[in-house]
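Protocol step 4 of 5: obtain the predicted structure for the target chain.
Materials: sequence only (see below). No template structures provided, no constraints applied. The aim of this step is simply to have a reference model before the mutagenesis design in step 5. Sequence pasted as it appears in the construct record:
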Amino acid sequence: MSSTAPKQRPELRDAHAAMRLRPYLGDLWDRRSYVWYEAVSELRARQVTNVLGNLWHLLNPALNILIYYLIFGLLLKTDRGVDNFILFLSSGLFVYQLTQKSTTDGARSIVSNTGLLKAIKFPRALLPVTGAVTEMLGAASTFVVLFAIAIITGEPPSFRWLLLFPMLGVQFLFNLGASFIAARMTTHFVDVIQILPFVFRLIFYASGIIFNVTSYVEADSNVRWLFILNPMYCFVTFGRWCMLGGDLDLTILVVGTGWSVLLLVGGFLWFRAAEERYGRV
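Step 4 output (structure tokens):
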């Protein structure tokens, strides 16, 4: 009489549990068309109730520059050591705001989509990725304004202007990593959303957005290294070099790229480690 071994039942698995890394990344890549569609739809929705519609994508950055120029350029005279201060200010402000908006969107991406998270199974990283892509697409108009300001203020076109685009690619990786970190932090402590504006206000003044650091800090000073090790200062400085030229310390490129890789990998892994939590927030 022959005996047959009992069939092994498949192991039950938590529906909220994270899949392995490789299929997880593959699933994210397969949903790239959704990311693009959602990003474009969000940008359109932001302007649907405005009389001037999409024109605000150009007017908003232009008005920001006008206000900052009046306050810091004309009233407070922070233009020391800068010939074309309005372009200097514009390039720094636009680069800074791109990271600020991406990180803020990332902080809201999980806690503002709890219904979606509970209803549908998908890689949770899709939400901060979509926010970062949305802000990158939204920034396209601001850099159109930047090039217009450069021409209007008499800067001759240069091949350096083209280097701004690979720099924005590296900065996008940094923004994505910051979005992952902010997204998970907010699930632990929702008040992070309220704290972020104060953090970015400190970063604003610590990154030389409204003043030329080399005119106020000696080159061999230890304080100078505090700026160089600041990733936002690195992105802002390289962006200004692309538009205005001058000397460029290669350390800026190394530090900025290093921060981008570190934050992207570390931020993604830390975010993914709590994948099960996001479906239950």
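Step 4 remarks: Residues 241 and 247 are 8 Å apart (CA to CA). Residues 85-109 form the longest helix (25 residues).
Proceed to step 5.
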